[in-house]
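Hi U.,

Before I forget, here's the chain from the pilot set. I'm dumping it here mostly so it's searchable later in email.
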Amino acid sequence: MKELLEKPGFLAPSGTLGADVSYLLALIFTVLFLIAWGFAKKAQGTRHHNLILISMVSMVVYFCAYYYARQLGVLSFEGEEGFGGSREAYDNIFIPVLTTHLILVTLGLVLSFYMLVQGFRASEKINGDFVLKTGNLAVRAKTFKTVMLSILVVWGLNQLFLTAVRHASIGASIAWALIFGTVALVVSLEKLIEKGLPDGARRHRILGRVTMIIYGLILCTSTATYLMLYVIYPMK
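Structure:
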């Protein structure tokens, strides 16, 4: 898989197949999310629901497959392989942009799960169309404990797979631990979110805007990273 991703790309002379496909998918997903957001603005709940569901599930599958193959971009922190610029540009420009990108990707992945679940919980079907329902929306204590335990179990299985099967680096294990830690943190923050935004419909609309802003920033940082690696500072 890694060898396939490292084959020559088609967008830039110095690009790789993995980088080109990754960037195009980031662009496509962002456009799909914007279209789905437009459906929501027009109160076309079912179209919004279906497009968001397909887009987010596809994005999560792509994220897991691509970043597992690339070890979550950890290799970019272990040296200057693939970066043709100066050490100053690497430390002061590339690494900050890449770090911001990985943080945003993590938040985007977490929010994609959260918004999908929250969307189902905050909506109902009326005459065959999904509509947000007003009223308090809270997680039961038993459900909260089950979700937290599930996160812990999945993290443990993932760490076992990374260590025993993939023989991944410590950096990759730490990166995945941070992702699961972020997921657990967001689930924990749900209790605070419930107090600040008790109405389910209003919560979904506000957090939906925040999620769209994050996806837009992911596209911006992805574009900047791609340009620096394969256009501005390609390997000579």
